[in-house]
Design brief:
CATH architecture of the largest domain: Orthogonal Bundle
CATH class of the largest domain: Mainly Alpha
Shape: globular
Number of helices: 15
Distance between the termini: 53 Å
CATH topology of the largest domain: Tetracycline Repressor, domain 2
Strand content: under 5%
């Protein structure tokens, strides 16, 4: 969107159009439903399906629907939290973004996030009211994360610790999603089941880190004042190498989970191919940081994560049920 268009829309004020129309425009820019939705659906469905696969059972449709829906709400709430956390910098350096230019207000976004929370509670209670404990755990981490763990300056001076502390919410979200299957079933976290599930929770942290770093790997000519990127903090070469390393760690975890769940060699083979492609894109960016390779590393990391989830839970369970 051009600066002139942004100024024109800001001049109309947030009330010039209905909230629904403005939220739809907001999501297209800051939380694209269909783009993010594919990853969220794969994430939630994979968590439930992997848990069921490890139990040797079929998951309920309600468990899948609740996991995916509640996870979608979590990621939207994360976006709203980021809008509040970054509002000062956005207003100063990125005035074209929806909140600074007046498309939506922080109060409106808070209202929607609260409405989403009510729906999350309702869905959780519908499945198993005791799962509220895990819902509160995610919200609790989100709350202190929004406050930068009450040490904002210390964290911002340590980018790696900052990223890990924020990505740590991913295993919590993953724990909720897997619990949608095993918690209502009363399945105990015995050694074998718990170990594989733990690896899957760790994989969600790795996958989140891969996407987070890759989307902030820019070409030198794309860098902007006031916008923190890993390519600016670490330089493009180390940033690309970091993404490659994370992809390889993710592959190791995926292979472990694949073997433990009995998913099969064909699924592992596809994981190897996708991981090799993502690693190659990361190294290509590290050696030649251009807008094209920057886009490629971001795309490859997203495809890597999407395939990870589909090939670990959803597709192996579908194949197992089909063959029985």
């Amino acid at each position: 969107m051009s600066e002139a268009e942004a100024q024109t829309r800001a001049a109309r004020g947030p009330g010039a159009r209905g909230l629904g129309a403005r939220l739809w425009e907001y999501q297209a820019e800051r939380f694209p439903v269909f783009k993010h939705g594919a990853l969220i659906v794969a994430f939630g469905a994979s968590a439930v399906c992997l848990s069921a696969l490890l139990r040797g059972a079929a998951p309920s449709w309600l468990a899948v629907v609740v996991a995916v829906s509640v996870l979608f709400g979590f990621f939207f709430q994360l976006r709203v939290a980021d809008e509040h956390k970054d509002n000062e910098d956005d207003t100063k350096y990125r005035p074209e973004r929806p909140v600074p230019r007046g498309l939506v207000t922080l109060k409106e976004l808070r209202g929607v996030a609260i409405a989403v929370a009510v729906l999350q509670v309702g869905l959780t209670v519908l499945l198993d009211w005791t799962l509220i404990v895990l819902l509160l755990a995610v919200w609790g981490w989100l709350a202190i994360m929004t406050k930068e763990f009450f040490v904002p300056e210390w964290l911002k001076a340590r980018p790696l610790i900052y990223m890990v502390s924020h990505m740590a919410i991913m295993p919590l979200i993953d724990l909720y999603a897997t619990a949608c299957d095993w918690w209502p079933a009363g399945y105990a976290l015995h050694e074998g089941f718990g170990l594989t599930l733990g690896a899957f929770l760790l994989l969600s942290l790795v996958n989140g880190s891969a996407i987070e770093i890759a989307r902030k790997c820019w070409a030198p000519e794309q860098e902007r004042e006031g916008v923190e990127t890993y390519s600016k903090l670490w330089k493009p070469g180390p940033s690309g190498v970091a993404v490659m390393g994370i992809v390889l760690v993710g592959l190791a975890l995926s292979a472990f989970i694949n073997v433990r769940s009995g998913a099969g060699i064909w699924f592992l083979g596809v994981l190897l191919l996708v991981s090799a492609w993502a690693a190659w894109c990361a190294i290509d960016y590290a050696g030649t940081p251009t807008p094209k390779t920057a886009k490629a590393i971001e795309t490859a990391s997203g495809v890597f994560v999407l395939c990870n989830y589909l090939l670990l839970g959803v597709l192996p369970l579908a194949a197992a049920l089909w063959l029985t």
